[in-house]
From TrEMBL:
<feature type="domain" description="NAD-dependent epimerase/dehydratase">
    <location>
        <begin position="16"/>
        <end position="249"/>
    </location>
</feature>
<dbReference type="InterPro" id="IPR050177">
    <property type="entry name" value="Lipid_A_modif_metabolic_enz"/>
</dbReference>
<dbReference type="InterPro" id="IPR036291">
    <property type="entry name" value="NAD(P)-bd_dom_sf"/>
</dbReference>
<dbReference type="InterPro" id="IPR001509">
    <property type="entry name" value="Epimerase_deHydtase"/>
</dbReference>
<protein>
    <recommendedName>
        <fullName>NAD-dependent epimerase/dehydratase domain-containing protein</fullName>
    </recommendedName>
</protein>
<dbReference type="Pfam" id="PF01370">
    <property type="entry name" value="Epimerase"/>
</dbReference>
Length: 347
């Protein structure tokens, strides 16, 4: 399975260490690596639930993927795993908007400060790093105003001063199966996932959609499998990716969040076979929904120039198609347990 890279050279099999590899993005990336390449994956995470199907001993690829239950905040094993790998991919982050307000310290440590030791280990071991940023945080930030101890400054500084080979990825609303959680089913009952999972939860429970501040903000949505193709290009074409920051998005799938809700209602009716014409929407304030201090930009505009030029990547999946794939998964995974819950309410 060792194909050719963009320069026509044979791709050398790599041992890839993925921090946060058991999550939504990591699970899809692992599937791609194991099924379609000769690379080996070392997964570092606090949970293996979303990759359990890849860890079964009966699988033909058993031995090319291993899982280590590690909290990177306080486990010295991480340094050893980085040193024994060829490439480091850091996916670990808190990415649900509600956590930005309710768990500000956790968010700062997880998304920012916890990344600093990873950068340090990669520099000392001369290992290449692919670091995941986020359009939600850095999309509003001018680099010159970043705090001095910010990991992005650390990454660029290590690259300039010590030769760290790095790539930074900025995902814009990647959507697909296994994204987030459904509150009270496979997540906390008082949890607030990202917008698509929130709306999926409303559909599954037959509840009104809550439109935060009218949901007129515009977003682009990218299918996870398209996005993973972009990440694989970064992995296998370091000469084209090192030192670059890539926006990975689908500008063709831009809608307001209210339009997303309307489209999801239509697609869910097709997926479930149930009439959902009675699904209503209610406007709520961001203060009531997320808490005091929540702020958001009204439009995220991804510039695709660099990723088009360097990797020749373009997303392929239209919004309606990616919603159908995602909602089919949500319906097949959750509908029966939710029906049982609704038919036997707690006394």
């Amino acid at each position: 399975m060792a194909g050719l890279n963009l320069d026509g050279k044979a791709i050398t099999p790599l041992t890839i260490c993925l921090i946060g590899g058991g999550g939504f993005i990591g699970s899809h990336l692992c599937e791609k690596l194991i099924a379609e390449t000769s690379h080996k994956a070392i997964i570092v995470d606090v949970s293996s639930e979303k990759i359990s199907h890849l860890l079964e001993k009966s699988c033909s690829w058993f031995g090319r993927i291993e899982f280590h239950k590690i909290n990177i905040k306080n486990d010295s094993r991480l340094e050893t795993l980085i040193r024994t790998s060829d490439l480091m991919i850091n996916l670990a982050a808190i990415c649900t908007p509600a956590d930005y307000n309710t768990r500000p310290l956790d968010t700062i440590y997880s998304n920012f400060l916890d990344a600093i030791p990873v950068v340090k280990y990669c520099t000392e071991s001369k290992k290449r790093l692919i670091h995941f940023s986020t359009c939600e945080v850095y999309g509003k930030t001018i680099g010159s105003f970043l705090p001095k101890d910010h990991p992005l400054r650390q990454v660029f500084a290590e690259g300039a001063e010590h030769g760290l080979k790095f790539t930074i990825v900025r995902p814009f609303n990647w959507i697909g199966p296994r994204m987030d959680f459904i509150p009270g089913v496979d997540g906390p009952s008082d949890g607030v996932p990202r917008v698509l999972a929130c709306f999926s939860n409303n559909l599954l429970h037959g509840e009104p959609f809550k439109l935060v501040d009218g949901e007129q903000s515009q977003r682009t949505f990218c299918y996870i499998k398209d996005a993973i193709e972009a990440v694989l290009l970064m992995i296998e074409n370091p000469e084209h990716a090192n030192g670059q920051i890539f926006n990975v998005a689908n500008p063709n799938n831009e809608v307001t969040v209210k339009q997303l809700a309307e489209m999801m209602i239509e697609v869910y009716a097709k997926v479930s076979g149930d009439a959902v014409s009675n699904v209503s929407t209610v406007d709520v304030s961001s203060k009531d929904f997320y808490g005091v201090g929540y702020d958001d930009s009204d439009k995220h505009i991804p510039d695709m120039t660099i990723i088009n030029r360097q990797l020749g990547w373009n997303p392929m999946t239209p919004l309606r198609d990616l919603l159908e794939s995602t909602l089919t998964y949500q319906f097949q995974t959750y509908s029966q347990s939710i029906k049982r819950e609704l038919s036997n309410p707690a006394c």
